[in-house]
Amino acid sequence: MSVAKKEYKRITVKSLVDMKARGEKISMLTAYDYTMAKIVDGSGVDVILVGDSASNVMAGHETTLPITLDQMIYHASSVVRAIERSLVVVDLPFGTYQSDPKEALRSAIRIMKESGGHAVKMEGGKEIKESIKRILNAGIPVMGHLGLTPQSIYKFGTYTVRAKEEQEALQLKEDALMLERAGCFAIVLEKIPAKLAEEVAKSVSIPIIGIGAGNGVDGQVLVTHDMIGMTHEFNPRFLRRYMNLYEDMTKACSQYKDDVKSGDFPSDNEQY
């Protein structure tokens, strides 16, 4: 059954909780620069994630680990300048919150003050509980992230589906309840069985946003560059490509090159 969509002038963390209560699905995409953020925000997407996936998408690194706090602030500030409606959530990068709650708070404060972002996202459960509490106590909204946590890729050793075994699934459920009790406003579940994700979504009052976690959750997130087909090497089951920009842009660049070589560009109408 479809649910009437409420029009929001600005999306806030409360807006997302209200959406879940009404049964309205939440849309979330990534952006790392002003131009892309302007397009995503103008489309009416609810949440823009300035993900540490910028390490892969924008810088070409194999993992998300190399990106720094300064680089995340740069990307986030570029996105925030484009936004009129969407909630902007910024990933805390690897190494800025895991070991020391005080360092975690300093990192989150820098993101909020220097980028103008609206919230931060952190990967992990009980092992980062104190860091989460320290940040929340400072009045900074926190989105959790469980399941496949890319910052821990060297611990997992693979990007395969997480929490298929009973013990890991039980721990994920406990961590989700802990994040809700701690005060997180939402949780991303990445690459876990759809049935488990649905169970988690029903067990908490805060929104559960999935990526590779089925349709029984409260919203979905994809990397925009994957969704519009600017990337072409990455083809997981959960990805739906709405465009094939890699092919279209390659053709356009090739045509431009040919037109320059032949002298066709610029034409008489394209010069002063």
UniProtKB/TrEMBL annotation:
<comment type="function">
    <text>Catalyzes the reversible reaction in which hydroxymethyl group from 5,10-methylenetetrahydrofolate is transferred onto alpha-ketoisovalerate to form ketopantoate.</text>
</comment>
<comment type="pathway">
    <text>Cofactor biosynthesis; (R)-pantothenate biosynthesis; (R)-pantoate from 3-methyl-2-oxobutanoate: step 1/2.</text>
</comment>
<keyword id="KW-0566">Pantothenate biosynthesis</keyword>
<feature type="binding site">
    <location>
        <position position="121"/>
    </location>
    <ligand>
        <name>3-methyl-2-oxobutanoate</name>
    </ligand>
</feature>
<dbReference type="InterPro" id="IPR040442">
    <property type="entry name" value="Pyrv_kinase-like_dom_sf"/>
</dbReference>
<keyword id="KW-0460">Magnesium</keyword>
<feature type="binding site">
    <location>
        <position position="91"/>
    </location>
    <ligand>
        <name>Mg(2+)</name>
    </ligand>
</feature>
<comment type="similarity">
    <text>Belongs to the PanB family.</text>
</comment>
<feature type="binding site">
    <location>
        <position position="123"/>
    </location>
    <ligand>
        <name>Mg(2+)</name>
    </ligand>
</feature>
<feature type="binding site">
    <location>
        <position position="52"/>
    </location>
    <ligand>
        <name>Mg(2+)</name>
    </ligand>
</feature>
<feature type="binding site">
    <location>
        <position position="91"/>
    </location>
    <ligand>
        <name>3-methyl-2-oxobutanoate</name>
    </ligand>
</feature>
<feature type="active site" description="Proton acceptor">
    <location>
        <position position="190"/>
    </location>
</feature>
<dbReference type="Pfam" id="PF02548">
    <property type="entry name" value="Pantoate_transf"/>
</dbReference>
<feature type="binding site">
    <location>
        <begin position="52"/>
        <end position="53"/>
    </location>
    <ligand>
        <name>3-methyl-2-oxobutanoate</name>
    </ligand>
</feature>
<keyword id="KW-0479">Metal-binding</keyword>
<keyword id="KW-0808">Transferase</keyword>
<dbReference type="InterPro" id="IPR015813">
    <property type="entry name" value="Pyrv/PenolPyrv_kinase-like_dom"/>
</dbReference>
<comment type="subunit">
    <text>Homodecamer; pentamer of dimers.</text>
</comment>
<keyword id="KW-0963">Cytoplasm</keyword>
<dbReference type="InterPro" id="IPR003700">
    <property type="entry name" value="Pantoate_hydroxy_MeTrfase"/>
</dbReference>
<dbReference type="GO" id="GO:0003864">
    <property type="term" value="F:3-methyl-2-oxobutanoate hydroxymethyltransferase activity"/>
</dbReference>
<protein>
    <recommendedName>
        <fullName>3-methyl-2-oxobutanoate hydroxymethyltransferase</fullName>
        <ecNumber>2.1.2.11</ecNumber>
    </recommendedName>
</protein>
